[in-house]
TrEMBL record:
Keyword Transmembrane helix carried by entry: yes
Protein name: ABC transporter permease
Residue spans crossing the bilayer: 21-38, 58-76, 103-127, 139-161, 168-192, 228-247, 259-281
Domain of life: Bacteria
Keyword Transmembrane helix: yes
Organism: Paenibacillus arenosi
Length: 721
């Protein structure tokens, strides 16, 4: 029977492969290479194994594709095109049988390049206590993509060998590998911006793939991966049919015509399979054009309306999940009009959101959606200065929205289940400002403070979410349950926030010992996060012994943000959350500890002050902050590092006093200033706003502690100069 003949052919191909032990050694070498790549992730740099796996995918995995191409060429050249093997045409097995047996053996061999490297990854992940569900998500995402890449490159090699009989086919095969990887990625995609040509990548792990984000790679890439996989599978079938036609044409027979017809059919199938991927990029390019058009509209609208026509007092946003890819949003903004004589007020809402209705004080009004603006018209005439109004917006969004920022592809918004991501600086709810979101080329502008509103009362309500959802403001103690259909309602609130961010996904939550603060990070950061949480808890316990500690933040968010539009700076505080932008050297190390402590104790780390042109030299508030941190470093944790900056002479005097054994007096002094000066809190955003407008800074935005008053208090507490 034919299947017995096929099994014998398969056994023969396996025997030939096993007779070459050097080939079996190569996957082991790549397993060792994977270990070397991942093993660099040790203290003091980031210990996130998933982060370093991306490095392997972009280099070593791409190199293995060249092996796959060469193997495909060897499998065909070894016997099927050699004159001395003409007797094979007399075997009771068809060309397709021989081709499929060779292809399967080649794929089994290439799976060793999955087995050994990922065996190493699993071993190291278990050693670092990475949760099993996170490890499973990684394997189920990457292994199918590895298999698809190897199947594609192996088939290309076999088809080339069937077409070109000269040994130059090896060189051509390597050129094809280079074109399908680095040339396509660097020249065609990155330089020439021909992004739809990603369809011809041999692997999807190169630029703009978002595979390096552990939390959201799967939900963000699922649709694109399926479309690419459809085309890649059709391409494999087409190349296989083409190779068999070329081999079959060497021998006269009735099946040649049938195979040629099959080739024509496979080409038609290939063209059809490219349509879904092309439609996806057609939609993305259309959005890019809308973004560029929005920038042009901004220049026109910005000249007609003054900035900040309304002083915002309350923002209330409700998000309702419609399905796994769509959200319905309702936002109400309450405020007092600061300008008079205008009948239209502009609001900023990002372009992808579809606005259904706008109401003023409960009544529907006319509005115009133009670019990023919603121009709301007062049907009763002009807005009056001092008049209070509530303006409500009803709108929706679907899927994942991509844009470009500084030449890199980023996620603007994502509404998909377990992959939701909204940043307040990208205007996912209406903002009262006229800061352009996009440049003239349609690229998203770098985030800036002028997209954040002044601190005010903000509320968020989530309806119908059954996934893990996180935000940067505090959740109210009780959740409501709709008795009719068991729809869960969660509510969040902040009395003094500048914006609301919203995410969903498989975050890892690490509790800080003896604290209400939670560290939110990715699962592969488990050990590093727990170690950092332990150090942070120890520091807070130390301060509580002699200081009335008030925790300004409730949440620390530590994750990669390269792929997010409007990525947060390390040390930025929004709502009740402190953001840390993860990188290989921007991790939870000795330098990060004092920054986080500043965020908890004082509300904003000193590092964030460098982003603003604010002069606080008239006050010693920054020096007193440093003294508080120095106290812990000198008494408990000498490993804690501070940013290099010139120290004020009062700090030097403080250090000298500690060396003289006067720690209790110093603690008493620091406690006094911490208690009587609003815990040394600085409203840096409000101060910066007054400085930019060249207005005098009102009292209360930061403690004014003069050197003279400090000297008098020092003398009183310490008993001498």
């Amino acid at each position: 029977m034919w299947w017995k003949m096929w099994i014998r052919q398969f056994q023969y191909e396996c025997k030939v492969m096993l007779d070459r032990p050097l080939w079996l050694l190569i996957p082991v070498i790549f397993g060792v290479w994977m270990y070397q790549t991942l093993s660099v992730g040790t203290h003091p740099v980031s210990e996130d194994l998933y982060y370093y796996l991306d490095d392997y995918n972009k280099l070593q995995h791409v190199l293995t594709l060249s092996i796959s191409v060469i193997l495909g060429i060897l499998l065909i050249r070894r016997d099927m095109i050699q004159p001395s093997y003409e007797w094979m045409s007399a075997l009771p097995i068809s060309r397709i049988g021989i081709w499929s047996a060779k292809w399967l053996v080649g794929m089994i061999y290439m799976t060793l390049f999955i087995l050994f490297p990922f065996g190493v990854y699993v071993f190291l992940s278990l050693a670092k206590e990475v949760p099993a569900d996170a490890l499973w998500r990684t394997l189920t995402l990457f292994i199918p993509l590895y298999v698809l890449s190897y199947a594609l490159s192996l088939t290309i090699g076999m088809a080339l060998a069937a077409w070109i009989r000269n040994r130059i086919v090896y060189f051509i095969g390597l050129c094809g590998w280079m074109f399908g990887t680095y040339f396509n990625d660097i020249v065609l995609v990155e330089i020439l911006q021909l992004n739809p040509l990603k369809l011809f990548h041999l692997t999807q792990f190169l630029s703009g793939g978002f595979h390096y984000h552990e939390l959201w790679a799967t939900p963000w890439l699922m649709d694109e991966t399926l479309r690419y996989g459809l085309f890649a599978t059709a391409f494999i079938v087409t190349l296989s049919v083409c190779g068999i036609v070329l081999l079959q044409s060497q021998q006269p027979g009735r099946t040649v015509k049938i195979w040629k017809m099959a080739f024509v059919g496979s080409v038609a199938l290939l063209l059809l399979s490219a349509v879904p991927y092309g439609m996806m990029w057609g939609e993305r390019l259309a959005w890019s054009e809308k973004f560029a058009q929005s920038a042009r509209i901004f220049e026109q609208v910005n000249d007609f309306y003054p900035e900040q026509m309304m002083k915002l007092e309350e923002t209330n946003v409700q998000v309702t999940r419609q399905n796994d890819r769509a959200l319905k949003l309702d936002a109400s903004l309450t405020g007092t009009f600061a300008k008079e004589g205008h009948s239209v007020i502009p609001f900023t809402l990002d372009v992808p959101f579809y606005v259904e209705d706008v109401k003023v004080n409960g009544k529907s009004v006319n509005f115009e959606r133009t670019g990023q603006f919603i121009l709301v018209t007062n049907s009763e005439g002009v807005w009056k200065k001092g008049e209070q109004a509530t303006i409500s917006f009803h709108y929706m969004i679907e899927g994942v929205v991509r844009s470009y920022s500084e030449g890199n592809e980023v996620i603007s918004h994502s509404a998909v289940k377990d992959g939701m991501n909204f940043k307040h600086k990208v205007a996912w709810y209406p903002l009262i400002n006229q800061s352009s979101l996009y440049g003239s080329d349609g690229s998203l502008q770098r985030s800036s403070s002028d997209r954040s509103s002044a601190r005010h009362h903000m509320r968020l309500t989530l309806v119908g979410f059954d996934e893990f959802v996180y935000t940067n403001i505090s959740e109210l103690p009780s959740s409501q349950q709709n008795s009719n259909n068991d729809i869960q309602v969660r509510q969040y609130e902040s009395m003094n926030a500048r914006g609301i961010d919203l995410w969903s996904g498989p975050f890892l939550e690490v509790n800080i010992p003896q604290s209400e603060v939670t560290l939110l990070t990715t699962p592969s950061n488990k050990q590093e996060a727990e170690r950092f949480a332990s150090r942070l808890g120890k520091a807070l316990a130390y301060y509580r012994q002699w200081l009335p500690v008030y925790e300004h933040i409730e949440q620390i968010i530590y994750m990669q943000q390269e792929d997010l539009a409007s990525a947060s700076y390390t040390g930025e505080v929004v709502g009740n959350s402190y953001y840390i932008r993860q990188s290989k050297h921007g991790n939870l190390d000795d330098y990060q500890l004092p920054l986080v402590l500043e965020g908890i104790l004082f509300g904003e780390p000193s590092k964030s002050m460098s982003y603003y042109k604010v002069d606080l030299s008239e006050s010693l508030v920054m020096e007193l902050r440093l003294m508080l941190l120095e106290m812990y470093r000198m008494e408990v944790d000498s490993q804690m590092k501070f940013p290099m900056r010139e120290r004020h002479h009062t700090v030097k005097k403080f250090t000298t006093a500690y060396m003289e054994g006067k720690s209790e007096q110093l603690k008493k002094l620091l406690r006094y200033y911490y208690e009587t000066n609003n815990r040394l809190y600085i409203d840096i955003h409000a101060v910066d706003d007054f400085y930019n407008k060249e207005l005098p800074v009102p009292e209360g935005l930061y403690p004014v502690i003069t050197e003279q008053s400090f000297h008098e208090k020092w003398t009183k507490v310490m008993g001498h100069e």
